[in-house]
Amino acid sequence: MIIGTAGHIDHGKTTLVRALTGVDTDRLPEEKRRGISIELGYAYLHAPDGVSLGFVDVPGHERLLHTMLAGATGIDHALLVVAADDGVMPQTREHLAVVALLGVREATVAITKIDRLDEATQATRLAQVQADIAALLAPTPLAHAPMLPVSATTGAGIEALRERLLDMARTERAREDGLAFRLAVDRSFTLSGVGTVVTGTVFSGSVRIGDELGVVPSGHAVRVRGIHAQNQKAESAHAGQRCALALAGVGKDEMHRGDWVCTPAIALATDRIDVLLTLWPDEAKPLRSGTTVHAHLGASDVMASVALLDRDALAPGDTAIAQLVLKDSVGAWHGDRGVLRDASATRTVAGVRVLDPFAPVRYRRTPERLRTLAAWSIDERAARVAAVLDNAPLGLDTARLARALSLANEAALPLPGDAVRIDATAIAPSHLNALEAQITARLSDFHRGAPDEVGPDARRLKRLAGPRTGDALWRHALDALVARGALVRSGTWLHLPDHAARLNEAEHKLAQKLLPRLADGGFDPPWVRDLAKDCAVSEPLVRQTLASLARRGEAFQVVKDLYYPLATVERLAAMARECLEAPEGLQAASFRDATGLGRKRAIQLLEFFDRVGLTRRVKDAHLLRPDTSLFEARP
Question: Measuring CA to CA, which residue among 289, 295, 339, 292 is closest to residue 314?
Answer without folding.
Answer: 289
